[in-house]
Each structure stands twice: as C-alpha cells, then as structure tokens.
Design goal:
It is a single chain. This protein has two domains: about 120 residues, MutM-like, N-terminal (N-terminal domain of MutM-like DNA repair proteins); about 120 residues, Helicase, Ruva Protein, domain 3. About 25% of the residues lie in helices and about 20% in strands. The chain contains six helices and ten strands, in the order αβαβββββββααααββ. Helix 1 crosses helix 6, helix 3 packs across helix 6 and helix 5 packs across helix 6. It binds a DNA duplex through helix 5.
DNA sequence: CGCTGACCCTGACGGC
DNA sequence: TGCCGTCAGGGTCAGC
C-alpha cells in the first residue's frame, strides 16, 4: 500500500486527531517487525503530548517534547485511527491509545514496517544520507542530471534510490518514466539534462495528483475501512503489461530491474 | 563508490 | 479441495 502519497495521506488523516493529545497507553502485541520494536517504547511514549505529526521520506514522525516516535509502513503497513475498545484483529501489532476517544493502530501483515524511538539529539542513521523530498525545490532535473553522471545502472533504479530522491516507489517511478518518455532500463548516466527536467516535473506531478486523490478517498477514514484505491484508474503502465499503451495503442512490455517489475512502452519510451 | 542479489514476512492468485 | 510456485506498493546489507 504505502507509497509516498499514502504515507502523506495517512499523516494528514491522523494529524488533527493527534495534535495536543496525550498518549494514554501503548500496547505492543508483536515486536518482531523489520527491526524489533524497542522494549522501552511504551514507557517512553506514555504520558507524552503529541506536538506535531510530520513526514520525512516514507517515515511518519510523531513529535513530543521527550523525543519522537518514527513509523515506517513498509510494504503492507497502515496506521489508522480506531474507536476506543475496538477489538484488535490479525496483524494489529501496536496500539497507541490517545487521551480522548481514539486509538492509533499499527497493522502490518508482512511486518516490513518498523517503529523507532528518536531521543532528542540522538543520531538518526535511517534519516541521514537521505536525498531531497521530491516535492521540494531542492529536487529538480539539474539535481538528477548532476548525480547521474557516470552511472551505468538503470534510470528507474536510480530514481528509486533514497539517496537520490526519497519517496519514489515502484508505481510512481514507472508512471513518471512513461510520462517523461524515458525507457526504464536506460543507463542513468545516458539521460540528458532536458529529459531529466521533464522527469522531475512528472515525478512531482504524479505524486501531487495521487496525494490529492488519496485525500479524497480517505476523507472519512476515522473508523472507516482504510482501504484506498485512489490510483488504479489513472495508471498508464504499472500493472498493465500486455495491455495497450494509452498513448500509441501498442502492447506494453515488462522487464525486471533490481527484482522489481517494470512496465513500459517500447514506442513511447526511449 | 556503484551495482547486484539475498533477505526480511504474509497473503493472494494461478496452474495442476 | 489442496499444494506449490510466483509475485506484491519497502528498504538494508554483504560482497564483488
């Protein structure tokens, strides 16, 4: 589920219910996630007041005066607000009960997600070395061009590298490359500045559009089922191998780059 | 430093 | 109906 738009949608959804609220209790039912949940997380969080809900890359950050809770949703994770005393279901690994009505519930079938405690001033290895946010001014075609010189790996793998730019997952990398007319397997170092400028624009466009739609889908997700389906209708290539290209009508092809499927149009992408 | 492949885990799906 | 292989939106790490 979570690409950047979903994480940002989650952030926007939970923020108004978290700000200024005190954490009443934290329950960890399953601590074996991507990294073990810190054993002292519940005691550190209990009683803390949430002062901010931020996002960096695909990490959610719940800020408190004592330190921050950092959450990654991995491949299959979700963080939802559920009404009080709603019984936990399968894969509901962590509950963060808030003062007032609701409980923040972390669910993750595949357990590729993670929870971290960030003490003030402590180094954060997972956040250091991260590239710019894709929707920030620091991210543009010139940045991609400069970093890519001499690199022989595929351009798709390149833009999915968090040191280059964060938050571009398999779906939106595929979509942006199609919209920019760039073959996903082309060597990153052999893409021109002009084409990287187009690519940066399309990455921003596709992410922005998905965030807007995610917001619409999840508007009522407090107590809702939390299952978004916002992107399916607009996908140009992702998940459409063999289907006709929406631009030229030719059959879309598929190849694997770094263990990930990459769908593209041989005619429209070079 | 750059790149490749293995790996973490459950669930859905198609073929037999 | 069940069993098996494959694949899935994430990211880190070892090894070359």
């Amino acid at each position: 589920m979570p690409e950047l738009p979903e994480v940002e949608t989650t952030r926007r959804g939970i923020e108004p219910h978290c700000l200024g609220r005190r954490v009443r209790r934290v329950t960890v039912r399953e601590s074996r996630l991507r990294w073990p949940v810190p054993p002292d997380l519940p005691q550190r969080l209990r009683g803390a007041v949430i002062r901010g809900v931020d996002r960096r890359a695909k990490y959610l950050l719940l800020r408190t005066a004592r330190g921050d809770l950092m959450v990654h949703l991995g491949m299959s994770g979700s963080l939802r607000l559920v009404p009080p005393r709603e019984p936990p279901r399968t894969h509901d690994h962590v509950d963060i009960e808030l003062q007032g009505d609701y409980c923040l519930r972390f669910n993750d079938p595949r357990r590729f997600g993670s929870l971290h405690w960030l003490a003030p001033g402590e180094p954060t290895p997972l956040l250091d070395h991260l590239g710019p946010e894709p929707l920030s001014d620091a991210f543009d075609g010139a940045w991609l061009y400069r970093l890519s010189r001499g690199r022989r790996g595929a351009v798709k793998t390149f833009i999915m590298d968090g040191k280059v730019v964060v938050g571009v997952g398999n779906i939106y990398a595929s979509e942006a490359l199609f919209l920019a007319g760039i073959h996903p397997g082309r060597a990153a170092g052999r893409v021109s500045l002009a084409r990287y400028e187009r690519l940066a624009v399309q990455i921003k466009r596709v992410l922005t559009s998905a965030i807007e739609q995610g917001g619409t889908t999840l508007r009522d997700f407090v107590g809702g089922d939390g299952k978004p389906g916002y992107f399916a209708q607009q996908l140009r290539v992702y998940g459409r191998a063999g289907a006709p290209c929406r631009a030229c009508g030719g059959p879309l092809k598929e190849l694997r780059l770094g263990q990930r499927s990459s769908v593209y149009c041989v005619t429209c992408q070079r």
